[in-house]
Amino acid sequence: MPTPINEQRRLQALREYNILDTEGEEQFERLTRVVQSQLDVKIALISLVDAERQWFKACAGLEGGPRETPRSEAFCAHAILSDDTMIVLDAREDPRFAENPLVTGEPNIRFYMGAPLITPEGLRIGTLCAIDDQPWFSVPDKMRLLLEDLAKIVVDELELRRVRMAKAETAARELERSERRGDAAERAKTQFLAMMGHELRTPLNGVISAAHVIQQARSAEQMQDMADVVIESAGRMERTINALLTYAALDRNELTLREESVNVAEKLASVVKLTHAAAVEREVTVNVSADPHIVLADRVQLGEAVAQLLLNAIVHGPRGGRVDIRCTPAASGDIDIAVLDQGPGLPHDALERALEAFEQLDGGLNRSAEGMGLGLPLAQKLAELHGGGLTLHARPGGGACAAITLPAWRVMRPSGDAEKVSRRAKAAG
User: Fold this and answer.
1) pLDDT of 103-161, one tens digit each?
2) Which fold has domain 7-147?
3) What are the backbone dihedrals phi and psi of residue 109, each rounded to the nearest 5 degrees, phi first?
4) Cβ proximity of 157 and 28 under 8 Å
5) For residues 387 and 410, is the Cβ–Cβ distance under 8 A?
6) Would you say domain 157-251 falls under CATH 1.10.287.130?
7) How many angstroms separate the CA atoms of 394 and 392, rounded?
8) Model-level pTM?
9) Cα separation, 292 vs 412, whole angstroms
10) Class of domain 259-428
């Protein structure tokens, strides 16, 4: 088995990314799909070469197959011996691979092209590779250059992931020190700066990476894929900035409601559509149960409050789980809009902290959820601006329930006496 001369440094660099044996992540899966479609190959992989194995962080065309193979059988173990892209036109004619089990058996490799993943320190930790079950006669330079550019983007994503984890770890240490000092303001500021930088830098990197690929796009399909990345990343930045500005306006008492008649069931349906991409990425099923209550509210801000609760439930709940949204009237005439998740739940001593701005209960090195810690506090302030409130409690058996309460005087009865409700709203204000 070939081994680079800087093997120990190379393995140390690989492990510093803390990525081996982690779950799939969309930004890496997307890049393998681009390779598969644009090079028209059967399989595309992001392969990381460990001491005794190669492990696949992402793959296209090998769904349901193994996530790793022995290093002794790995084409990628040869590809990391050089900075140059390794090309094997017909593995059966190459003495290094003719008897390889991956050639003589499934997946019947014939063609292989692997671009090394080279860290900023110049260490080759794996490859982005294209594999086919038919031999090739040649490789156009454009295809090789495309694979090499995408391999650089893979490394960019790995670096950003490492920075995020390091910032989260630093924020956790600062949080612990701040709690020991009892300095809540310092704790919130430190964590906010770390999380805010990540929340804006990550989608911005997606825009920049997609723009580089668009510059060399070979088809309308590839341009559309990258355009989708730009739209998704820009939308994420916009939501982050809007949430921050809305919270700041609320904190300064500068936000006023634009009240109108709002069908709660229709509003909840639109919120589910707004958060659809996040639910799909986490494979979360969202179920809505609501009668068409009509309330006097700010349509945009009510939707924002519910969206924050829903996004919080999606990212903190288990992948492939379920979130329920229920709108139910209380005996007092109030209306509760509750979001119930299947997450890890909240211990009693964490309930109060969860409603503090910029607080991240899951803020350590392995933090799985995105966000600045504004979701619940923002929803609470918006609910209070409507004259209601927000409650948060653990559910028996696991999970949490966050509920917005709208006061009875905001509920427009079936008679549709909007004028009467409006007068009552002014009186209550």
Assistant:
1) 999 999 999 999 999 999 999 999 999 999 999 999 999 999 999 999 999 999 999 99
2) Beta-Lactamase (3.30.450)
3) -65, 130
4) yes
5) yes
6) yes
7) 7
8) 0.45
9) 11
10) alpha beta
